[in-house]
Amino acid sequence: MRRPQRIEPGPDQESVWDYPRPPAVEAVAKRVVVRLGGVVVADTTDAVRVLETSHPPVYYLPVADLAEGALVPAEGSSMCEFKGRARYFDVRGGGVVAPRAAWNYPSPEPGYEQLRDRVAIYPSAMDSCEVGGEVVQAQEGDFYGGWITSDIVGPFKGGAGTFGW
Predict the structure, then answer these.
(1) The CATH number of the domain where 57 resides is what?
(2) Taking a C-beta distance cutoff of 8 angstroms, is the pair 147, 58 a contact?
(3) Nearest-5° angle of CA 155, CA 151, CA 143?
(4) Whole domain around residue 145: which residue ranges?
(5) Where on the phi/psi map is residue 29: left (φ > 0), alpha (ψ -120 to 50), or beta?
(6) Number of structural domains the chain divides into
(7) What is the model's pTM?
């Protein structure tokens, strides 16, 4: 399968095709807010994002900045060739439960230690996720859990027919 054409970023934009592989971890200077069931389940100014070629950034929030009881351990795990073994969580807020809507790396591989004690959340499973006051769009397909903001351009891996990129 042929890789699609990179969209040229405009002023103050970045292309996911300029992100590295293996992925990089970068601090986020903006406030990140996540809502579920009409309530705030996460609010932080201490997020990091993982940047990987062809993927919208995945935001990782400190577990300590999630509302009490928002994370409930869920069944199953998965393996990332770079970050290690992930465990999953249901996310609860306002009487709503989003099954397996969050994950983390309790013992991340070298180079990804910043992810320890942080959790990533699928934006498609939440009422909303915001970065710097902007409501994000969920990455199509949900396999990677990327957060798309107006300063990110693709095309993005994740949707039907893109796994061979």
Answers:
(1) 2.170.150
(2) yes
(3) 45
(4) 14-67+111-153
(5) alpha
(6) 1
(7) 0.96
Q: CA–CA distance from 103 to each of 113, 118, 131, 153, 157 (Å)?
A: 15, 9, 19, 25, 20
Q: Which residue shows structure tokens 């070629």?
A: 53
**Per the domain annotation, does 41 fall within a domain?**
yes
* Omega of the bond leading into 56 within 30 degrees of 0 (cis): no
User: Within 10 A of 49 (CB to CB), how many other CB atoms are there?
Assistant: 20
Task: Write down the pLDDT at residue 159.
Answer: 86
Mean pLDDT of the region 108-120: 97
Residue with tokens 């579920």: 36
- pLDDT band, very low/low/confident/very high, at 77 (cuts 50, 70, 90): very high
| 86 inside domain | no
